[in-house]
Write a structure and sequence with these properties.
4-stranded mixed sheet; 3 helices; about 150 residues; about 25% strand; 3-stranded antiparallel sheet
Amino acid sequence: MKVILQQDVQGSGKKGDLVNVSDGYAKNFLIKKGLAVAATPQALNEMKAREASKAHKEQTELDAAQKTASGINEKTLKIMGKAGNGGKLFGSVTAKEVADELKKQMGVDVDRRKITLESEIKAFGTYTAEVKLYQGVVAKVYVMVGEES
């Protein structure tokens, strides 16, 4: 009997999979416990519609990430910091500060964990940061750290 799994079932498959199991297992366990539904034409159509919707959503997110990446790629963020002894940067510039400046200067909201700095920013100068916007979509941003007046 063919059933569509509503939840992950160990030994049978993952949620949303169409699997072929014995009639007794399907009727007495999977369907009875709500772990699966019978693979009727209506259920199959609903499954195909869900898959199409998911694919469309992923494509839309990918397109948006690529558009954002092309807008911020190779751009320069200016971050001002306090000068400590000997004209060195007081403290350091973190990924959180880079994320805040990205939002403020370019209007791009990015989680700080998605920003990778090439090295710790503990001095004034220009550095490179990678911003991961989506799986496989990465933008390179320059971070220019200057001294506050």
